[in-house]
């Protein structure tokens, strides 16, 4: 086992808990701004939490809730201005109750997914579906609509397994300036708003989840050509309960995860310790990043494709981190208990080792630095979207090797949800990770292709954003795509009429004021805007604003070999 340096606290204060800044686990927000707060509070009980909310409300201060690992990419944790208050749920991390009869489990909102899985398993219970990274808190999972992959049951989103929650919002003088609401199906309007809230309704203090009896799974990965991927996706998701697909478009391959529940009598004690989530030597990460930087600056697509093939074949040969018994991989299928397979993230298990090893994206080292575009596209049109991406790849097969350096496009299944800001229909979620330059003014190789894919997804196919990921452009007009957006905003108005838990970013995303686009020179390079003129790209480097190659309505920063006068 590699020991590693644990992620740092993403809230830093110049004196004890005052004059603070906050960032995310990647060390950078999409617009590269620094978020400030006057102070941070670390409540340890619900009573303390209530009095903190009351104090802030009475003083009409902006408030934002922060979590231990701060994994959301957009600016969901920034209180506006410099006088705001951060409330960290770091110490609200207790399991409150497990009722084995009803299979319900109540936890505080700062409990991590990992704790939740482990505590449930001790009682022979399981959360059936979850994200694959376990360094997320229950409050954060709900607020961003985080999910795993399935079309079965109620779907893969954690919020659809919540049966009750307690939320603390601003109150009037008659409430002592804080209002505590316990919600469940009996007050469904508020409950459906609070299940996915972007943090704008108040602080979630407690959550009760409906679990299932612990079960075993059988997992095999099968690599196929991607020629019929568009035809396969819908049926594959219905055939296998925990199906997902990893797509390598430049290689013309797709890796199908054949993953089902099986009888608990079947022998096997498999473990999933996903390799990209393990502690990684900093030196190795620095070499990989330096290589990638060089490939970008030398405009070397062949080098990127060679790196991508090496990375993807290495992961495949190491079974992505799966082992048959926790130690060694001897072949598929991997059979084991759900709690040992559903999520991982061992780079969080950390001894301080002076940064010799770290999580690959730790901003204190020269490691991964990336964008993530994550959106879900309705199963009814997903085949056409996949075929459009394939048309783009045909124009230059090397164009998407850069994504494959980050193990390709992860495709997970999601179901329509009753949550107002949950998924509108059964869909396939595309998770695309790609290189980000440390210099915001430098364009990327095949900049235009990735921008066209984002715009195809969002505009032509009506893709819904993942609330906890993405660059600004994916949120363009997002709220208009949710049929219950109005109902959500009415609950927000009732819970927090002064907008103390909102910030400039959430107001823009919710269509209340302003626009998610930040228009300035070079804004399209960072996904802060969609270019409408050349100056939004990098004209001095030969990147100009042009229509898309197959989606003419797209506006992308394309490299024009001779800069036009």
Automatic annotation (TrEMBL):
Pathway(s) per entry: Cofactor biosynthesis; L-ascorbate biosynthesis
NCBIfam families, per the entry: pln_FAD_oxido (TIGR01677)
Species this chain originates from: Populus deltoides (Eastern poplar)
GO MF annotation terms: D-arabinono-1,4-lactone oxidase activity; FAD binding; L-gulonolactone oxidase activity
Catalyzed reactions: L-gulono-1,4-lactone + O2 = L-ascorbate + H2O2 + H(+)
Residue ranges of every copy of the FAD-binding PCMH-type domain listed in the record: 33-214
Enzyme Commission number(s) of this protein: 1.1.3.8
GO cellular component, one term: membrane
The protein's name in its UniProt record: L-gulonolactone oxidase
Cofactors (names): FAD
Lineage: Eukaryota, Viridiplantae, Streptophyta, Embryophyta, Tracheophyta
BP GO terms, sorted: L-ascorbic acid biosynthetic process
